[in-house]
Recover the amino acids of this structure.
């Protein structure tokens, strides 16, 4: 199922831009009204990361001392101009489009695991300044990203271990989820019914595989609710669920 969604969504992104040109400009990506905000954030963050890496290379060059006010001002202006003039070769754009779709799907379903894996990438610790930059790739679930940024900014340390980050992320997310009623919880997952729809029409009538909800609840460590949901689906003998049916289940389980 996910393979098909990845292929369809990647193809849809590609069709938004001319394949005749040698390059796709970031400015055109950001101005495209048909492109989801999450994809725009991904491409902008990717370019920003390239510029950051360029800055690290400059700083590591032993033949030049760039630590003076005049050069830093020039480099800051240069980095800004890089953003405005950045372009992607078509082949790279296609490659990144697929990565953007895969990241979106994983993040929608498993926000905690996806953020942690994307940021640390098998490393045991990470500098705060790099975490802040990597968080720019994410725009869905803004409550989670905003709270995480604020928490990290409040710390006076330069880096954080993957274990401390995991605890911080879980604490922020668990506290937010605990505050939701059935309606608010459904608001949190209603985009599933646009992105992973298998049948039905209208937001209330669209259905998604129950596995989607299973994965989401597992990532949230909502074990009791996950087990209740599985029992509910077994009793009803269903493998897909509508938003309305999910809301009814949650009303009984959360309220």
């Amino acid at each position: 199922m996910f393979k098909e969604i990845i292929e369809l969504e990647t193809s849809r992104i590609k069709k938004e831009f001319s394949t005749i040109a040698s390059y796709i400009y970031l400015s055109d990506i950001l101005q495209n009204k048909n492109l989801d905000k999450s994809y725009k954030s991904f491409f902008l963050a990717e370019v920003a990361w390239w510029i950051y890496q360029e800055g690290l290379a400059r700083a590591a060059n032993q033949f030049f001392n760039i630590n003076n006010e005049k050069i830093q001002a020039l480099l800051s202006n240069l980095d800004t101009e890089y953003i405005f003039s950045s372009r992607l070769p078509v082949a790279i754009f296609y490659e990144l489009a697929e990565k953007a779709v895969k990241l979106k799907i994983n993040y929608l379903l498993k926000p905690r695991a996806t953020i942690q894996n994307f940021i640390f990438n098998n490393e045991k610790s990470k500098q705060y300044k790099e975490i802040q930059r990597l968080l720019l790739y994410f725009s869905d679930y803004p409550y989670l990203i905003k709270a995480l940024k604020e928490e990290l900014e409040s710390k006076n340390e330069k880096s954080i271990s993957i274990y401390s980050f995991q605890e911080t992320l879980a604490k922020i997310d668990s506290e937010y989820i605990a505050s939701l009623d059935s309606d608010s919880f459904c608001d949190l997952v209603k985009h599933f019914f646009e992105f992973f729809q298998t049948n039905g029409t209208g937001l209330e009538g669209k259905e998604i595989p129950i596995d989607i909800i299973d994965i989401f609840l597992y990532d949230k460590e909502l074990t009791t609710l996950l087990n209740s949901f599985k029992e509910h689906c077994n009793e009803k003998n269903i493998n897909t669920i509508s938003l309305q049916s999910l809301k009814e289940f949650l009303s009984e389980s959360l309220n």
Q: What stands out?
A: The beta strands are 23-25, 87-89, 125-127, 159-161, 207-209, 240-242. The chain has three domains: 1-109, 110-179, 182-254.
